[in-house]
Amino acid sequence: MRYKITFSYDGSKFDGYQKQKHVLNTVQGIMENALKYINNDKITKISSSGRTDKGVSAFMQVGHADIDVNITPYKLKRALNSLIPDSIHVIDVEEVSNEFHARYMAKEKTYIYKVNIGEYNPIEKDYVCQLCKPLDINILKSEIKDFIGEHDFSSFCSNQDKKEDCRRIIYDASVKKTGNYIVFSFTGNGFLKYMVRIMCGYLISVALDKVEPGKIPYYLKNTEKKVTTKTAVATGLYLKEVKY
Fold this sequence. Notes:
The chain is α+β, with helices and mostly antiparallel strands. It is built from five helices and ten strands, in the order βαββαβββαβββααβ. The radius of gyration is 19 Å and the shape is globular.
């Protein structure tokens, strides 16, 4: 039986999402250890909507797993939550058809990025980008709109990303100021490695007057040119929602 598993996690407590050799403390590794125990010690893989880097958290991650034992979604949710640390929480479990795939069937993903522009806050150091400098919200609102639409984002992704097709669709891109916090939001059909962090780092550099404004269309057109601004730190980035 295939199950769709919706869960959240505190990325500051793990060495990234993806299971790796010689790295025990990953979200995927911990989830699969719990699933293996439930599935009568049979190796059980969880396939997720995507991978998040070390330090990146998720309000809503989605995965699927195939389990041979007869168990209801309610009991599977309870069993998982009893076996995983409290830095991960299973929100919902439901039975799905064997054709369901958490990654390939995802239609939209939304990421948010939080920046503290006020006084440094040590309590939030693992959860918010501690920029601690003012940013011009009007410049950010003007610039971020240029990311909306279907574009080749080769200029705004990691050199480690070997995908041949770097075209993605950004359905919505916005930014708001709440007190001493700036929050970026991006909704798209998919994101490349470091893409959101690179876009946020670029926008921050423009607002700090380190980069000339109005150049995003240039980079989206001239995809052989990589932006050279500093990539925003992982702390502050959250996978907010996945839609199917």
